Octaprenyl diphosphate synthase (Variovorax guangxiensis), 330 residues
Amino acid sequence: MPSPAADASTTRSVLSLIADDMVEVDRVIARRLDTGVPLVSHVSQYIISAGGKRLRPALLLLMAGALGFRGEQRFNLAAVVEFIHTATLLHDDVVDESTLRRGRPTANESFGNPASVLVGDFLYSRAFEMMLDANNMRVMQILAEATNVIAEGEVLQLMNMHDASLDEAAYLRVIRSKTAKLFEASTRLAAVLAGVDAETEQACASYGQALGTAFQVIDDVLDYEGDASETGKNVGDDLREGKTTLPLILAMQRAEPSQSTLIRTAIETGDTSQLPHIVDIVRTTGALDATRAAAASEAQRAIDALRGFPENSHQAGLLQLAAQLLERRA
């Protein structure tokens, strides 16, 4: 089993393909965060500089490279995608009352909920202002739809809180809206910038959606088998927040009736006093292996979407990212 260090090394190898591009994206981000309101810049920089792989802008850049597009607009739209993602993180942490992200206090924990919400709003509005630079209605359409779907996904998740009857289809609907949609938009934008045909654009979008879905499914696995020092969040956080994720859904299907009742009660009441026992049930029922198998299916769908694409280093990097998700440990 590859170690987290090995996974990180693989990811760095792929991202090295776009290292110079990301420097340009960082320049755009710094310039667009320049504002006369210091708190806006401070909170924005706090969360943007928190680390992470910046997968969404990276996917846009990698897909643009795979399609042979080298125009300057890829830097602007990669920054737009990062701003939208950062805004969702700021709002998510307020809604979820989270205190830890990527191993350090969340922005709402450090600056308070009002500042987090308002700076998130600023990032959304600045992102839409930047979209105009592309002078392309299709770009506007993709990003407006993505932002709308993400908001719908957030509301769906809120409605599903403490609902132990949630099934796999409803779970997937939430993560494809809340998480995978921005992955999909990132890769679709690259296709639009490159001016490819409709079939190729759809293949790019399918890759992004499948990769984003697999990414979130694995993230939900790590909530029960990850190490907080590596994942940046506490084991069992999803259950504490009342989220019925796939590991819990599958554990309830596989466990003894008394064990299923224990999980169901914890989800519905928010009582985490039995968390160690529940984590043990999730692990011993094989629910995590089954969840990883679901992620593997999505990762394979991403790989299949790139069949027929020109073979180059960026296309190979996209394939490698999908394959690596199956071994993700942090």
Summary: Confidence is low (pLDDT under 50) at residues 1-6.
